[in-house]
Structure formats: C-alpha cells, structure tokens
Fold each of these.
Amino acid sequence: MEHRVFDDPQVVQQKMIAVRKQGKLIGVVPTMGALHEGHLSLVQQAKRDADFVVVTIFVNPTQFAPHEDFDKYPRTLKQDLEQLRELEVDLIFTPANESMYPPGYDTFVEVVESAKRFEGVSRPAHYRGVATVVLKLLNITMADMAFFGQKDYQQCCVIKKMTADLNLPVRITVCPTVREPDGLAMSSRNRYLSPEERTQALVLSRSLTLAQELVDDGMTDTDRICRMMREKIETSPLAQIDYIAIADPVTLEELATISARPQSQTTGNSTRAVVLLAVRFGATRLIDNTLLF
Ligand code: PAF
C-alpha cells in the first residue's frame, strides 16, 4: 500500500493526533470514491484552507437502502489514488466495512427534521447513514474543517445541522457544484446513464436556469415556478420526476412564495431560496439544485 494510504481507523487517528500536535489545521474531504472534477475541486479548496489534507474513500453501506445501488456503486480506487497523488493530498483513508462497522456496531446519528423531506421521502434511512459515517470520519481524522459539494445540498444542510447541534469543533465548507460544459452536474452516478439518457438529463440544469429566469422576471409563486420547471423537464420523455421543490436555503422548509428579503444568515443576504429536484432517467436517479437570488 502506498505510504499515504491507510485503512485502519486507529492508525489514522493516532497519526492525526500527531499532526494536530504540530499545530496544523486539518481539512477533510469525505468521499465515496469514483472521483470526478467535483471531488477534486473540494480537495483544491481544502488545500487552500488547511495545512494537512485528508481524503476519505468509503462506500458507506448504511446510507444505501437494500434495493439501492450499493453493490454496483462505482469503485475505482486505483484511478482515485492516482488523481489524489497528483494533487499531493497528505493522507488518504480507505477503511473496510468491517473496521467502520465491526460486529455489534450499534450507534447511529439522526438529524430529524432536515433529513425528513425531499431525499428523505424517497430514501428514509439515507441521512441517518450519512450523518453517522460523517461523524465517524470527522472523529477519526480529527478534522478542523470538512468540505462538501453543493450538488448534495440537503446533505450539506443535514451535516451542518449535526455539527451545530452536537457542538462539533468543525467548520463545514460547501463548495459550488461543478458542471460538465453542457450543464450536467458532475456525479459519480452519471456513468450509469445511456447516451440518450445523458442527453435528456440536460433538462435538469436547464430547468434550474429557468427557475432563476422566472424569479428575475418577478415571479414569486413557487407553485407556478415548479410547474414551469416540470413542463420543461417533461419535454424529455425519459425523465420521471421524483420531486421539484423550492425551500428556505437554511431550514429547507418549503416556501409558498419567494420573499424579497431573505432571513438567511448562513448563505448570505442575497440568497432568497433553494430549488431542489430529483429525477430518474431509466434506473438512474439524479439530483440537482440551485440557489435563487
Ligand atoms: O457525498 C458523499 O459522497 C457521501 O454521502 C459522504 C458524505 C462521503 C458520506 O458517505
């Protein structure tokens, strides 16, 4: 195994205690591997902000329901390590399932309200698994800061809520979604799409752009905006909409109207709402979102 790659949680924690003693700020990028430009942008941000950068690669079984794609989730460790070597990441943590969840494992973290809606409806236990593994990864790596992509907007909200509610001394940084030149949000699951599905999936980013245009034109009724987005997405015969929702960017409570003056402190004064969607193309379920200003 390469000298910077470790799979034993205890070994990593001991190393990280030593890194901390040197006074270095530790930045962690948790991933499930199958790395793409979106992940690499998180690593680059971590390198700018932290003194010591850790990337974790772990396809976390507890965030997949039995019928979901855990077994077929892309695992591309060799290529992932090559990409991370080029970025000169300080440490890579690639634990096995048994070391993260040994026999008798019995503790889970549940963020209640913000995990219930949207993704939580289709994937009821998903964020319980995410919150649990992220807390474990933060503890093992002794992170001062952790980096997540806005592409998984609700996940970012759940993780921020968990760190606030549990008083974790970790700063959560949300980095912008990285898109293909044609607008498709980068995702490890894009590789499941057939060429036809891939083409039709462009309606997602186009419908998000439409939402901002409608808001720019003065539309504030979220039902109307969602309806027009739905019509745009339905121009793709392969698209099966799971949800389209417009919500408060911090609490994720659904909004009936988009107000002129946002209350949000976290996402800055000009953010008025977030629009989130999940749409299936064949067997592949894609999510995307954008902040509305
Ligand atoms: O976003 C992901 O890749 C995963 O949900 C995460 C945060 C690494 C937890 O397994």
Note: Residues 109 and 132 are 5 Å apart (CA to CA).
Amino acid sequence: MSPEQQHRESQLVERVVASFDDTPDPRLRELMQALTRHLHAFVREVRLTEEEWQRAIEFLTAVGHLTDDRRQEFILLSDVLGASMQTVTVNNEAYGNATEATVFGPFFVDGSPEIELGGDLMAGASGQPCWVEGRVTDTHGNPVPHARIEVWGADEDGFYDVQYGDDRVAGRGHLHTDADGNYRFWGITPTPYPIPHDGPVGRLLAATGRSPMRASHLHFLVRAEGLRTLVTHIFVRGDELLDRDSVFGVRDSLVMDFAPQPAGAVTPDGRDLGDRAWSRVRFDIVLAPAAAGHEEV
Ligand code: BEZ
Ligand code: FE
C-alpha cells in the first residue's frame, strides 16, 4: 500500500476518534473511541469491499426486523460470536475456587414456582428424571444457608416450557438451601437442543458450516446475601457437543458426571419411579464475595 493510501486511512481513524473527544461521559467516550479503532482496524485488515459492507448492513437489518419482545436475534448474534460469553467472562473474574459463570440464555422466567427441598420441578415435562444435589459454600468452604437457587431446563424434545406458547410452567423452579447449605431436587436429565436457527443467525451458522446445537445443560441462578450472584449451567460429561457448543458456554469445571440409574434402582428419597430409568448428579456451588470482580486471588 502506498504511503499516501496508508496516510488517508489512518488519518480518517484519527478524525473519527477525535470527534468523540468532547463526550461529557468519560465511559461513553472510551467506548466510542475504542469501537472506532477496532471497527476501522477490521475494515482495513480485511479490505472490506463495498458489496460486503452492503451485505453486512442487510444482514443486521434482517436481525433487527426479526427482533421483538419475544425474539431477540441480536442477543443470539452476540451469543454465536462468543461476545455474550466473553462479556460474562470479563464480568465474573476468576476468584479462588468460585464456580464459573456462563451465558444466561433467553429462557429464564421470573416468578418460577417454589419447590421444597427434594421436590420435583419437572411438573410433567417430558424427559428422564434427574436427582440433583449439592452444597452451596463460600470460597472459604463455609456453608451458605438459605441461598436461593433457580433452575431451568429444556425437556426431552429440546424445548423450554415458554417455547410452547400455552402458558405451561414445567422444567423450572426455585428452592433454598437448608441450614447447612445443602440442596436437592428432581429435575430433567439434560439433552442437546438447537438455539433458534430459523432466522439470519441460523443462516450465518449454515453459511459457515456451524451447528446451532447447544451441549446438554441445566441452568442455575444462585443468589445469596453478600455473595456474587452466579449464573451458570452444568453440562453432561461424555456429551459429544461439549467442544462445539454453539454459544461457547462450556467450561471444563462445569462438566459433571450424570450417573445413569436403571429402572428400579433405589432413589435417594425413596420415590417410586416405576419402570423409568433416572440419573443423578452432584453439583457443589462455590460463591465469590459480592465485591469480587477485580481482585486477583
Ligand atoms: C440457552 O441455553 O438457553 C440458550 C443460550 C443462548 C442462546 C440460546 C439459548
Ligand atoms: Fe438452555
């Protein structure tokens, strides 16, 4: 590239960056100037053609047109680009042995039913029952009593209750740890399912030879006084999708042994499951202090 061309390109970057110099909010200034630098670096690195620029605009327009109160195609785009997971990673800094966070996903619903310790949150959802138990502690190993644990999972057909559009509530609920920080409940043994892929994000995945499938998982949201709120999932050891989860949510530390149990195996709470096989998993949860985020341990 000629020195003149180089000069024109870099001068434009500098002019755009400088246009934000007087932004009153310093954080907004930082964001806009860094965005400008990275965006221009991308355009210059790939030598973006005007036709490619046009197609990118059409793609983003299609993402916007599909987005409404119920379908958030922009978040899905962020998810498949790993931007959601990187934001989670940046905002949940490693702290001792605190349990790792992962993506929230679009299927959490406020106001889930409360279940007793040992209760069943499947509520008629299809799938194999799974006994889930564990203990919530802080990073010093002290039990966390009365922590609120929200759980939600897809059914055997790969759908969350809210995707049926018939107001059913199944496969979700919340419970509290006991005085020793212990919890237990019956949930659904996770199975793989695709993220919504009938829109522009699905077409992008197809065009790039990527699968929309998510590795099998069960969602958790754990809150306790004075401790950092944890949004995470547990994944199933042996699932062949673990290394190609479409939204990059898998962390090795979140892969758990879901032990298959044959029909007739005695259940931990004496529940009679008749001729149904079931599984069981232990997930001990370690919460960082609420102030954790930027300290290094
Ligand atoms: C989920 O796990 O529920 C999910 C996460 C990201 C995109 C779509 C679904
Ligand atoms: Fe999910």
Note: The first strand starts at residue 129 and ends at 138.
Amino acid sequence: MATRVEITSDFWKRYRNLVRTEMIPFQWNVLNDQAGITIEKERIGDEGIPSEKSHAIENFKIAAGRTKGTHYGWTFQDSDVYKWLEAVAYSVREKRDPALEKKANETIELIAEAQEPDGYLDTFYSILGIEYRYQSLGGSHELYCMGHFIEAAVAYHEATGNEKVLDVAKKCADNIDDNFGPEDGKIHGYDGHEEIEIGLLRLYHVTKEDRYLQLAKYFLTERGKHPNFFKEQAAVYQGPNALAGIEKAPDKYFQNHAPISEQDTAEGHAVRVVYMCTAIADLAATTKDEELLQICKRLWNNITQKRMYITGGIGSTVNGEAFTLDYDLPNDTMYCETCAAIGLIFFARQMLRMEADSQYADTMEKALYNCALAGMALDGKHFFYVNPLEVNPLKSKLDPTKSHVKAVRPSWLGCACCPPNLARMITSLDDYIYTVGSEKILLNNYIDSLAAIQDDNHHLEITQKTAFPWDDTVSIIVKNQALKTEIIGIRIPSWAESVDITIDGNKVDNSAQKGYVYTNVAGGAKVEIVLKFKIEIRKYYANSMVSEDIGKVAIGRGPFIYCLEGVDNDGTVSTLKLTENSKFEYHPNEDILGGVGTITADGQRVESNNNQLYSTTKPVIKPAKLKFVPYYAWANRGENEMRVWVNC
Ligand code: FUB
Ligand code: ZN
C-alpha cells in the first residue's frame, strides 16, 4: 500500500470499533437471518417491499446449488453481502482478524460457487431464469450488484492478498465485457443504477487491464444516448419480475435523459447521480480528461450550490428518492438517503484528485459529520435510511406522505442498502484524510492519526495529534524521509473564523489558495505544524430562494450542524424561537450521547392563549431556554420531535 493511515482519534475509534465489534457481526447475522429482529419497511403503501427476512446468504446457497429454494428479496439483495464483505476488507486492513477472515473466505467460496461458469454473477437470475439475464436492465440491478462485488473483491484482495476473490471479480468483469460494448452483437446499454462503473475502474486500478477502463467509459458515455433503452427491453421481456414498471419512470430518474456531456443539473435518483459522478470523476482523474472534469464540476456545483441540505443530505423527495429542482429543500418530507450522502463523499474524494480546492473537502466533511453519521445509532445496531431535518413523530405515523420519515432508527430495513454502506464508509475513512498527488499532498480531514505515505514520489510520515472534532488545535508532524522537498497543502475549513499557523513554533502566513495553505518540507526534514482554529457557534441562513427556510436559522459549530430535540426542550420544538439577541453558549458534555458538545441559547416559546384553531389574538411569547445537540446524535433517546432549522 502506498499510503497507510492508522486512525487513532477517540471520536472515530469509537465508531470504527463499533463497526468491527457490533455492526459487522450484527449484519452477518441479519444476512443469515439469525439476528432475531423485525425488519421494517422503508415506507407504508408499497406492498412490494420485501421485509420478512434478508435471505441474502440463502440466495447464494441456492444459486450455488447447496440448498433448494427460491430467491427472496430485492433484485439487488446480493449487494448487501458484497458491501458487508467490503467493510470486512477495510476492517481487517486495519486489524487482522482470523475468525472474521475465515467467514469472509467462506463467503467468497460461496460467491464463487454461485458464479456461472462464464463469469456471470447474480443470484436473482441464476435462481429464477438465467436465460433472461441482461434483458431487463432498468430494474434488474445485475451490473449494480456485480459492481459492488468487484469493489468488495478489490478491497479484500488489497487487504489480505486473497487471489481467489480477485479472480472471481475478473471473471465477472470479463463476462460483462463479453456482453456489453459498442461492437456488433453486444448489448448497447447499461444498468438502471450506476455502480458497475465504479467497480470496473477500481478493478482497472489494481489490474491495469485497459479493457476494464474502456468498459467503464463505455457505460458512462453511452448513458442517455438512447433514452428508450430500458423501455425497449421491458417491452419484450418475459423473465422474472425485476422491478417491472420501473422503466416507466422518467428518463431523468436513471440519468438517462441526455448524454452525460449535456447534463448540467443533478436529476433523478440521488444515489445513482452521485455514484455516476464518482465514476466520471475517477475516469476524468485517471485519464486526465478535461471534458469529463467539466461535467463533474457542473454537476458538483449544481448539487452543492442549489440542491444540497445544510447537513450534506441530498434528494428532496421520496418520489423516486430524487433531486427535484434548484432550491427545493423541504425539511420534513425530503429523502436525504444515507447512501446518497455517502455517495457525495465518494464524489468529493475523486474531485480532490483533480483539483486542490477545499470546497470538496468541506462538503465531504459536512456530509460525513452530519447526514452520513446520522444514518447510524450510537449503538451501531439501528439505522436510518432517510435523514430528515425536521420530524414530528406523530405526523410520521399518521400522515402517509411522511411514512418514510422515521423518528427512530429501525434495526434493519427491507431495502438494506444504507447500513452496509455506512459500514464500508466508516471502516475506510482512512482513505479520505489525504489526497496524495505526485506533486503535492493535501491534508483534507483533521483526524488524530499516523500516516505512512510511501510510493515512487513520496517517502514520508505524517502524524496528526488532535482532539478534533471537539477541539480547535491540530498538531501535524511531517517527517520527510526523501531527498526531495514535499509540498503539503493544509485545508482551512470553511467553518473556521480564522486560523493561526505555526511551524516549529514560528508563526507563518496563513493565506490560502482555494482553501489550502501550502508549506514546503525539505528532504530529510521533520517539522511540526500547529493549527489553532477559531471556532465559533455560527448562525446559518439559507438563500431566500429556499422557501422552507425563510425566517429560520440553523446552528453550527465546527463541522457539526446542530438540532433541537424534544427531550432537551420540554417536548415541543416547533414553537421555539431564537431572537436577534439570543446568546449562545457551548458546553462540552461527557454525560450525554456518548460525549458531545451541546449548545444552549436564550430564546422564546410561542404559545396560543386559547384553543381556537384561528383567532384574532396574538400568541403569547414566553422566554425559553433552547438546548441543541449535534445533528448526527439525534434520535438516540427515544421518539422525539426534532428540528434543524429553527424559527427566528
Ligand atoms: O436501488 C438500490 C438501492 O436501493 C439504491 O441505491 C437506494 O436508493 C435504494 O433505492
Ligand atoms: Zn441506502
């Protein structure tokens, strides 16, 4: 490994240990239907949601011929197993675990047995009708699942040296290559859900086999060139029900409305968009393609400047789990799927390979510390799919348009894409701290850690000592063991009011270029860079085009966005108000929510003085104390009202 980062941060070690000791074993039990839990439907009113069991491992056993039975679950049920395997890979990369590796190796054997002799891999069609494969790509998720497998395989191979898993992945990619592409006789199409493109590029990076890169490029550039592709396939399809009817969704749902070169706005299903963008950005960075970079920048700007929540969440509507239009950011009906925030983090990471611009790392950090982390309970065993910015638990129960907006995290969901996505994100967080380029190294995330960066261009160690995100000081010790000078770019976060920087005790210029302050570390030198951020409690106002946030304010400190929860605020938070003169105080608080910083403010409560629905009497305004907790930690103390955007 060219770069190895050991995370030593208390904040992140707790999460990473939780994933290793609770989440991965728990998910294994779920995948094997041995967790003894109730699986919830994502929302009411959709009878087609399979939620009696996971059956994911059983599907593989049936496809492998080890047991008899039929397929159960979504067409993409296999991906739950692959994401689990990927999380295992990163977890054992951090700390070898023979018992867990044995389970993973056995799972790989099972997957290999389920693979068709020609490399095709998908239990849904292997069980229900292999002759129908690749014929219903709008909803079948075959390539999506194989993409997840390939990602897991590359990660597991890199972590353990396991060759078998990489062989299965190559066979799988070769089968896709045999079946798709511009040549006559091949399918001129792509999957309804982007993901295979990410997997193929990862496989290319490890094997250097150009066919995989070309195939990823084909899928990306073919998309949107013939929007009727899914409909045409569906019209003649006679195989098992692979989300029948999905082809009638608007072309935008699949990012199939125009070639990617003509896509200026983020349209349709949010996870698909950011997975597509991640792959385009990886391809652009890998091939140094300027046109692809411009596509990425247009989509990035549209998402982050017009369609993203202050928590880093994306997807404004449950209808198609999708983007809607610029500035349409409702707080209590939105989607903000955990996977979408994670996908945005993937996209940001790829953008940093091309542009040393801190906006990417700022957004990565925002999505990570807020929307993504909120997807998981502090116990590591309960998960949100949807991450609202405002909840009234009764409305979620009684208003069918809000049934997807849950007030407490279920143990597991019928559509289980988010929990294993969180597991793989948290276990691979070490990959997001630095961007190692041939000319410079960017320090993107402040996380207590030890990094060894050793490749053809670099030979150095970087140690970060910090109690961030709760503290304002970071000591960075850079030991350059090479002869050449290293250029280190240090990110100045957008939430910092200012920063003092010293190098070996001497104050230095803190002017930044696109959000990074650069310093040279001479060959053979060891320097200590100390950053002291001025972090204040901030009031954020949304653009006035966001009608839902007019007259409201959101509170943040450092990377965290805060929220009000009923449990801290006499039950009801919708009647609370901040004023222009509200004074805020920050309190480190070890006693709640696993140790967080809370914020209090003096404000007001608005109360009607009669019980009429409408009245000519103005409500009474009473003084009130407001208490805020970090958004990521909400919904860990039972069912509660919650609000990010507070009346003011
Ligand atoms: O379609 C597979 C996954 O299920 C998507 O990424 C999620 O949004 C959920 O729809
Ligand atoms: Zn998800």
Note: The domain at 8-432 is CATH 1.50.10.10 (Glycosyltransferase).
Amino acid sequence: MGQINIYSGNKPVSRVVTGGTLKDLDACLKPYRHIFAVVDSNVAQKCPAVSQLMDGLRRNKVEMMSLEPSEEHKTLDTVMGICSWLLENGADRDAMLLAVGGGITTDMVGFAASIYKRGVRFGYVPTTLLAQVDAAIGGKTGVNFEKYKNILGVIRQPVFTYICPQVLESLPERDFCSGAAEMLKTFVIEDGGNYRKAADLFFDMSGEYHVEVMMYGKDERKVWGDIVRKHSRTLTELIGAAARVKAGIVSRDQFENGERRKLNLGHTFAHAIETLVQREGSGRFNMDGVTHGEAVAMGMVLAARLADRYYRNDRNDPTELEDRISTDLWDCNIPCFCPYSIEEMAAIMSKDKKAEGGKVHFVLPKAVGEVETVALTVEEVCRLMA
Ligand code: GLY
C-alpha cells in the first residue's frame, strides 16, 4: 500500500491511500467511533467486494444509507436528504461520514459533511477509475443548480481517499474508459513517462477486450473484469502516479487561484459538449449520450488544436499534438471526435462558471507533459478555431 499526502502549507490535510484491499480499510476507520456510510446502490449490488465491505460495516454497527446517484439527482434536495438521515440517526460533531461510490456520490457526501453541523469529517472509497484519479482527490464537493453543473459547493478535504483497484473489476468497460481519459489528461499535464505507459496499457486492454467480446462472443462484463484483474499491478502503479500528480497540484494551489486550473484541461469544451447532449439528446453520437471522460477526451483534442493555432498559428489540420492525442485516445477505445462546431459550443463556453472579466481560462497543451493556462474571450477562441 502507498500513501500520498495533500498539504495546506506544510500541514498534511488529507491522505490518499493507494493499492489497498477493502479489508484493509478497517485501519483507516479505526480512529472513529461514530461512522455513517453512504453507499452507491449500483455498486452495492454489482461489486462483490463492496457488498462484503457493507456486511463488515453492518457487523460493526455502522449506520448505512443507500444512494442512487445521477446527474439529475445531484441536487441540494439529495444533500438535504443525507443531512436529514444524519440528524435522524443522531450524528454528532464527532461523526465520520464515509462515501462509497463514484464522483457524484463523493461530491454530494463531501458537500453534506461540509455543511452538516458546520462540518464533520469525511472519507472516500471511490469505486470508479474517474473518481480514483480525479473526483475523489482534492476536496471539490458540490451539486448542480439551475442549469449549471457543480455550481454550488465548497472545497474541503476528506480525511482520506482510499483507492482500491479491486473495485474496478466490476466497472463496465465504457465507464472504465471514461476514467482512462481523465488519467491520460493528468499525464498530459504532468508526464514523468506515465502518459505513454498508460496509453499502451489501455491500448492492450482494449485490444484484449475486443478479441474476446467481438471475436469469441464472450460475456462483456466478465471479460472486462478479468482484463482489469490481469493488469491490476500496472494499473495500480498508474493510479498512484495520477493521484500523486493531482495531490501535488492541489497542495500547491488548493483553492484554484492558479496552478490548479491546469486540471481543467479539456473541461471548458467538455462542459459545452455535455450541455449540448443534455439539451438535444445524443442524436449526433453513435452511442448513448456521452460520459464525462469521453467529453473530456473530445475537449482535450480541441484544446490541442487551439494550442497549435494560438502558439504557432498553424492551420494544418490535424496538428501534430492533436493527431498524437486523438490517435492514442481512439486506440484505447475512447471516442474523442467532437460532433459540435465551435460556434455551437461558444454560447455555453462564455457562461463557464470559471469565466472572469469576460475571459475564460483555457488550458493549452504545448506538448505531452507541458500545459499553460491562457485567458481568452470565447470570440478569440472562435476566431482561432475557425
Ligand atoms: N477536477 C479538477 C479539480 O479537482 O481541480
């Protein structure tokens, strides 16, 4: 097992534990007498390791609540429901709130813990790859409000984020790939040799999956679970490396006044894509909607094109970096070609919640492992991308 600390100044404020099994979670929970666990209902049903964990928690008299997470129900009402449940069950200021689930669950539970009795401690067991490398690290909590994603929330650090690769064995391939896109994003920001290693791993996993499912017609979930188990060692190393990159950035800029903006690589485009899919349905896609990771993948490719236009005024299409990133994503079975025009995305991007003084911070990749944040108006972006 490994441990990565997140600091506020010199003080460790949160720890990310990597490579453990769910059985070892006991050590993280030992210091707390009053534990309240909120568990994603899908994971509880589909992941044997999580249902074993729940049995163990029940035996230890941990109060448990089941949550059916969705973007639609990522609301203040759901957070208030968690708070009501805490009140009804006598949760005090010394309570420890544990979230077991993907990013929607951890965001809402972290938010509930941050406001309940002016803040109680909380810890996460992220059950998706996306939450393990991104959402459950760094303390961003919140809910959607009106038409905006994650517009209400606070930054407050969990006591721990406990990353267990075993839970990924029951994650569907498409959801895994969504997390793979966020992991590749992290390594485009800070490489250290991990970008290639991750892209090669996901390429191999995707190849093995297609042979077994397409050629031999084997059961998709079982095949994918076996592939994740087979590669769990390399996967664990890469999850740890991505967590280390994120923990480092958050330690240097917890409240996103500067460097942390880098983690939004591809996200301004991604949010516009997700909003358009929500508005007009998934008609332009060959698949059902778009996952967050797929939207980030499309956003990263667009960011690479924007970077080339911005730095070199190079209008060759596709550019070298764009070509490299999109080829890697595509080879890993991550859809990365955006079906919307820049004009269609423009109105949504100008309302980006991170816009300041009419400018939006775009994260521009210059190379794998080197990005820069540049404030641009959406009109400037439209001109450059035309
Ligand atoms: N997901 C980006 C961040 O945590 O800053």
Note: The chain has 15 helices and eleven strands.
